Amino acid sequence: MPKRPTSPADLPKSVPVFPLSGALLLPFSHRPLNIFEPRYIEMVDAALRGDRLIGLIQPEDTSEESPKGHAPLQSVGCLGRLTHFEESGDGRYFIILEGVTRFRLVHELTVLTPYRQGVISAEGYEADFARNHGEEAVDRTRFVKMMRDYAEYANFELNWEEIESTGTADLVNFCCMVSPYGAAEKQVLLEARTLEERAETLIAMTEYEMARGGSDGAAPLN
Q1: Where is the Lon N-terminal domain (predicted)?
Q2: Which of 29, 97, 142, 167 falls 20 to 30 Å from 194 in CA-CA distance?
Q3: H helices within 67-194, ranges in order?
């Protein structure tokens, strides 16, 4: 299996891009995906034959989960490494992408493949390659209190023993990925400049939801 990239220099100039609304991937986190559209089955096949890298990125228009054609894309996505796959009898895939680094979409390529491809740059995201970068600046006590308050608010249980043993960066990124917020909020979390900013942004979103009583019917963290 190709090795995980450890710096921007290890990245290819272009990658397949997978437009998916509301799907957040962050460095060193894991995103399970069910792949059933023929164009994306072909994309996974190509990734498995090659470097196993796929760029997950949101479309600007969030009305469609997976837009047809060449709908405009956000400028920032996250590169994922395909670390696990299962193939069903009808040719569908269940895959897991492990976040490598955020990237800027420089421009799309004109290609003959049914899936889209783009030139990417990880310039400015060098810190994404270090798993724990920036976690010393996060107010972990405040972040965990937010989790505890939200669990009580939404009436669900959390595995506190597991939470205590999880590193701060992994904890923040996991909570952002499973948070119940929409595509626009997920993009804000993705583009946060630092881990501390991402943690504080999620705290602010959660406190706002609890203050307004969850009237938008958001689902709890899970």
Answers
A1: 15-210
A2: 97
A3: 140-154, 160-165, 168-178, 183-191
CB atoms closer than 10 angstroms to residue 108? 15
Architecture of domain 9-127: Roll (2.30)
Q: Is 82 exposed, middle or buried (0-12, 13-18, 19+ CB in 10 A)?
A: buried
pLDDT at 214: 52
Query: Tokens standing for 198?
Result: 């991402």
DSSP helix, strand, coil percent of the chain (3-state; round to 5): 35, 25, 40
**pLDDT tens digit sequence for 10-45:** 999 999 999 999 999 999 999 999 999 999 999 999
pTM of the model: 0.91
Q: Range with the lowest mean pLDDT among 12-26, 80-94, 158-172, 208-222?
A: 208-222
User: In which element (H, E) is residue 207 found?
Assistant: helix 195-211
Q: Which residues contact 116 (CB under 8 A, 6 or more apart)?
A: 16, 17, 19, 70, 108
68 CB-contact burial (10 Å; exposed 0-12 / middle 13-18 / buried 19+): exposed
Select from 112, 131, 126 the least CA-distant residue to 170: 131
Domain boundaries, the chain: 9-127, 133-212
